Request: fold
Amino acid sequence: MVERRPVLTAISHLVLILGVLIVAFPLYITFVASTHTADAIVQAPMPLLPGGHMWDNYKAALFGNSTGAGSKAPVAQMMTVSLISALTIAIGKIAISLLSAFAIVYFRFPFKNFFFWAIFVTLMLPVEVRIGPTYQVVSDLNMLNTYAGLTVPLIASATATFLFRQFFLTVPDELVEAARMDGAGPMRFFKDVLLPLSTTSIAALFVIQFIYGWNQYLWPLLVTTNEDMYPVVIGIKRMISGGDAANEWNIIMATALLAMIPPALVVILMQKWFVKGLVDTEK
Reply:
């Protein structure tokens, strides 16, 4: 039986509402700024109600009609680069991690544990630590300002490999024996048994890795010098140049809001699978 305490219920709701307001207020200010002219934003006090230039600002952001001192690359192009990069990183990480975990769990080969721990140790080596040698390799292979340069160095994932390995270890041995008795080979067992069982884990990891790929900043900052290859996160930074008067903050704020839409849609559309995948992984 759940005991009802009106006072505690009211306090908990008040805390939740306060938290939502704290998180939502900066987003509201960003939206308001994206609907005014650049001159209106830099004036004090800044308007707190939406203006009448919303469509003009978003059109200028999407198609690159801004006149500020920073980058004038169209946001539609930058979001396309970010989308391709994020999808490639997410799908590539999941595919490589699934195959790596499958090999580690179900195949016998020399130094198997050594290779697993070698993969696991790379969790301690983030991109920032190995960024110098990685950049040198990418540069020597002429992969600067390319999708391959943006994505290939970020595809491998020790975290996803570890999670899939732990999940595969929970699969009953009876399933393996039944598949072997039915004449299924290793890849048939992988495709018909392990992949369907891993659907929720794959969905949860896809959401995490998509957002990871979409929000990449440091690595694209190094390997992209051409505006046509700017991801949207880099594009926002490149649009800021000089003082407040030199920047079109209305276009920058419109770009920031547009950049939030794809990851937010991925989380909203896959929320059920994401939560289920995390819960199943915990079990």
Summary: DSSP finds 15 helices and no strands in the chain. The CA atoms of residues 97 and 160 lie 6 Å apart. Residues 6-61 form one domain. Residues 75-106 form the longest helix (32 residues).
